[in-house]
Each structure stands twice: as structure tokens, then as C-alpha cells.
Amino acid sequence: MTGDRHRDTVARSVSLNQVWILIGCVLISGWLAVLLGCSAETPSSPPRSSFTSAAEPGLLDPVKLYRQARCDRCHGADRQGSAMAPPLLQLGQFWSEDGLTAYLADPTGSEENAARLETLTARYRLVMPSFKVLSEEERRALAQYLIAE
Ligand code: HEC
């Protein structure tokens, strides 16, 4: 009798163990699937800023772009400059359209105005961020606007 009950208990605990192993397998494979799914979705490129490019090139409004790309936060709403960044007025005297378009994508690598930029960098605590997130057309539209006005 006792032996039977003992065998019963052993049998039950074995099948219970199997159930736990099964649950464990299901959990682990589910977890793996999630892990794989996540890593598959992870973009290989660095995260973009919250600013997304305008959908319609050719209809670019540089005044809107200036606000959307948050240039105003540092350079001021009217481009008059602030304690954080220089004014962006009458830039036509310093910049070519191509030079300024390139500068917006890679401010630290600009050959045009290198000496002036060094002085500006020393004067302001913040640095001009790269706007590679903008398309070439968007950067060019901004450059034309900043040079013209
Ligand atoms: C985080 C603050 C910040 C933001 C945002 C910012 N800038 Fe700047 N910008 C600077 C600083 C600071 C400088 C001065 C150079 C330096 O220190 O890197 C500068 C320099 C410049 C210059 C060179 C000025 C000159 O006299 O030659 C241009 C042009 C310019 N920014 C355009 C823009 C445009 C266009 C945007 C938006 C797309 C923008 N900036 C957004 C901080 C900022």
C-alpha cells in the first residue's frame, strides 16, 4: 500500500516536472521569438531625431522648415540670435549656397568659413548640431533662405 502510494507520488511528481519543463520551454521559446523579433526590427542606422523630412520636395517652405527643425530654439524666432547661438542674418556675405548646404549636414567639417566658425565655436557654449536628418533639398532651401534674407 505504502509502496503504491509512494510510486503514485513519484509518478505524479515526474509528470508534474514534465509539465514544468514544457512550460519552461514554451516560455523560453516565446521569449526568444520576442527577442529575435525585436532585434530584427532594430534599425541599423542611428536613431533619427523626432523631426521627419517633409514629404513633398519642391514645395519646401524654408520659414516652416526653420521652425520644424527647431533652428529657432538656438538662433531665435527671427534669426536674431540668442545667448546660445549667433544671429543668422545677412549670411550671403559669408556663405555660398553649396557651402552652407554642406555646412548644415556637417558643421564641424566645413571648409568654407573655417576660421570664422572657429571663433563662433569658441564664443558659444552649445555647438551647431548636424542636420543630416534633413534632405539635401531641405538643407538647400534653408541655405537659399538664409543667404537671401
Ligand atoms: C543646439 C543649438 C542650435 C540649433 C538647434 C541650431 N544651431 Fe546653428 N549654430 C549653433 C551654434 C552654437 C553656432 C555657432 C557655431 C558653433 O558653435 O558650432 C551655430 C552656427 C550656425 C551657422 C553659422 C553662422 C555663421 O555666422 O556663419 C548657421 C548658418 C546655422 N547655425 C544655421 C542653423 C540652422 C539652419 C539650424 C536649423 C536647421 C540651426 N542652425 C540649428 C547652434 C544651433
What does this structure look like?
By secondary structure, the protein is mainly alpha-helical. The protein has 2 domains: 35 residues; 105 residues, Orthogonal Bundle (Cytochrome Bc1 Complex, Chain D, domain 2), CATH 1.10.760.10. 56% of the residues lie in helices and 0% in strands. It has 6 helices and no strands. Helix 2 packs across helix 6 and helix 4 packs across helix 6. The longest helix has 40 residues. It is elongated and about 95 Å long. The structure holds heme C. The site of heme C has 28 residues, from helix 3, helix 4, helix 5 and helix 6.
What topology does this entry show?
Blueprint: H1 2-41, H2 62-68, H3 71-75, H4 97-105, H5 114-123, H6 136-148
Heme C is lined by residues 69-71, 73-75, 84-86, 88, 91, 94, 100, 104, 107, 113, 116-117, 120-121, 124, 126-129, 131, 142, 146.
The CATH class name of the largest domain reads: Mainly Alpha
CATH superfamily of the largest domain: Cytochrome c-like domain
Radius of gyration of CA atoms, rounded to a whole number: 30 Å
Count of helices? 6
Bound molecules: heme C
SS elements, strand count:
0
Average pLDDT over all residues? 80
Structural class: mainly alpha
Order of helices and strands: HHHHHH
- The shape, in one word, is elongated
The name of the CATH architecture of the largest domain is Orthogonal Bundle
Percentage of residues in DSSP E strands: under 5%
Low-pLDDT residue spans: 38-50
- In the CATH scheme, what's the topology name of the largest domain? Cytochrome Bc1 Complex, Chain D, domain 2
Cα-to-Cα separation, first versus last residue? 101 Å
Number of domains: 2
